[in-house]
Amino acid sequence: MTTTPDPTHDVIVIGGGPVGENAAQYAIAGSDRTAALVEAELVGGECSYWACMPSKALLVPPAVRSLAQHMPGLGPQAPLDVDAVLARRDSFTSGWDDSGQVEWAEGVGIEVVRGRGRLTGERTVVVGDRTLVARHAVVLATGSTPTAPPIDGLADAMPWGSRDATAMHEVPGSILVVGGGVVACEAATWLAALGARVTLAARGGLLARLEPEAAEAVEAGLREAGVDVRLHADVQRVRRHAPEATGTGHVHGGAVTTTIDQAELVTDEILVATGRRPATDDLGLDAVGLDRIVVDGRQRVAGAEGWLYATGDVAGRWQLTHMGKHEARIAGEVIGRVADGGRADEVVGVDDDPLTQVVFTDPEVAAVGLTQAEAEERGIRVERVAIDLAVAGTSLARDDAGGRVVVVVDADRDVLVGATLVGHGVAELLHAATVAVAAQVPTARLWHAVPSYPTASEIWLRVVEDLRRQRRER
Amino acid sequence: MTTTPDPTHDVIVIGGGPVGENAAQYAIAGSDRTAALVEAELVGGECSYWACMPSKALLVPPAVRSLAQHMPGLGPQAPLDVDAVLARRDSFTSGWDDSGQVEWAEGVGIEVVRGRGRLTGERTVVVGDRTLVARHAVVLATGSTPTAPPIDGLADAMPWGSRDATAMHEVPGSILVVGGGVVACEAATWLAALGARVTLAARGGLLARLEPEAAEAVEAGLREAGVDVRLHADVQRVRRHAPEATGTGHVHGGAVTTTIDQAELVTDEILVATGRRPATDDLGLDAVGLDRIVVDGRQRVAGAEGWLYATGDVAGRWQLTHMGKHEARIAGEVIGRVADGGRADEVVGVDDDPLTQVVFTDPEVAAVGLTQAEAEERGIRVERVAIDLAVAGTSLARDDAGGRVVVVVDADRDVLVGATLVGHGVAELLHAATVAVAAQVPTARLWHAVPSYPTASEIWLRVVEDLRRQRRER
Description:
Chain A is an alpha/beta fold. Chain A contains 14 helices and 23 strands.
């Protein structure tokens, strides 16, 4: 390498999604350091415009309608006004305009650099015709890109990706969702709620990484919503027919014929939601002597520890916005600490922190930490509590209440290592378990955290009660 | 005292509300001990028939309607069907029939004894013409009784108590609610939601024991619901007019004229909700040499430690069902441990456990632990976080989202000692804070409990973030 040019910024972040924003913000917080945030699309990223926000904006109105429908005293509910729901979605994506986010970034002292960033050497990032040089650190936060399964004819059939499903301006009459993960299950939920005839074909089961109770409940919920769920399905061939004009003046692709388990299915659209991989293409890893990204608990990239960090989907640990932002906060803090002359290990890393996740299907699934299977794989001696989500607070909340809670306890340490809830409104019940898992609170102490009556949170009392009963009866 | 007669039961519990039920259940759990549960009214108590359950059954439908009204995509909501709401309330009180609860008690091996229990000597309880004698312990769980302020003419005016408000079969056209505590605020909320013209007159402010933010928000909510809120009001005189027949064939008391701050107000009914005191009347305390009930952290009554316990409202520590049930579980466990030859101090007491409370007004209030004022009174060096309840999860949940979070941190120990949330749906956000307070989790560790995006629970991340910002800027 020749002589390094003068730094242009203290910190350069490639990728301006929420993860990159957090990394930049935390790396310069409380200092006069400068940061560049390099983004090729919209600042705010996948989450703000094509994933978390629009998907939840589409899912909430049907969920509220379902709640209202099951509450005596309220009148019969009108069918959903799809245009109003789509308009609400548009308001949450700011009409795909990132000026608000850019304003925020500039307000906290981050320079937004438009374009695709690529490493060309240590601390050096090229964006178009600009060369940026970092005094302290470069953070990779480019996220992930969808993968498509090798199905005959799929690429030529102009399939929808998750972006098409969240950004849709018209609900298709019928659609085949290929996939069984979170994105597939959530998309099937809102598409069905907004009036599409939905078929879901998954190569395996649903939500494979969660407790089996989650898959069972979500499958039942999808079927109840009219979704034709086909599990362990073999999608063999896809053909898009010739385009045709519709009555509304739009030009659609023609219908799609998909061969699943030897039988043909004709739908208006096909959505592929079969997974994502770290977005490392054309990132210039080879220019700094790396062939892949491996991070430690402080998000330092192996082989380039002194200056290169990776956070979020591209780092490969998790694929969830909030977990990526957590990594970004830690990485940003480490960068700041080191820049101030401190040591990276003064910042507690993310290694042992529990993964949290909510699937906004109907019913919802909320999970933290390890499943029973994962805990046993790690050699943990497991105690398991599995009880119905049935307390006064859940019955009061809606007449069609129901659900299930599964908790995994490390018997030797008497602490929760995982919890999964399935049911209406469980999203907000999770964080109590997250605190317990993250802080390794003994269940003997949880016994003294008294939920208010009559809330649904009382289920956490029932969990400890059941654990104590099991121990007494053993 | 003469010779003690033979024991009839191992444990006798006076008062068959949820607190008494828990005490009896836990005292005999996993053993062949016997218990008697003495109840003069309905087994299941105030909470099941006249307080928590019916009040929440009345409050939930209006809350859901309000949520639906603020959600784009749902049609305009019809006015509440009051009869359907009252019918739902009836189903939650089992039509004031306690046979289900009696069946439960008998199923777990508890004998239900109908009548008023009175201590007549050590371990001895008289119920009508029966004398019960406890081998191990007597537990007092008689709850509390409403108090009425000394207002001229009030007693003669046949005022409603909280039971009349929860059990009402017809919504009064207009009603004056006297009081500013939780019961008064909740009753004003459901009475207004169900169509009554409500005036609320409080001697002081609202919800005096909570953070001031709670009172402000609840006052604003009541006013928005059309309640005429009069604070620091002097209710001077009450007069009930002659009864009159109504169009529906019912005979009501005539209208009530109340003089408040020298001005006259005429309403159909007046509800007194000004507080409750421990129900010790005719309990026979004097027969065992006591003039009042003082308990320790294991609910043992001072002066009768060997055998007498008190739990719930009558014990005087808290006036909340779930906290009373917590005391009852601890007392029951202590009784069982001692009966099995162990020591009471092998069971961790309730002394330091944080109080939790939810006020189901619109907006809701949820609180745990100490207010800032209480913490400062105890000499704690306080750090305070006060931020808007505004994260993606709250905006997605409803278009009229809003609210406030106040957190009190013990700066020397870096742990939460109190938290108060005000806003829609905060009831289920509380338990995460309750776990943190009860387990004294350092805020440095809470930083690693990552709420799932986009949930309202993300507010707990914002709280720690704000605390860290304050510390950085100090």
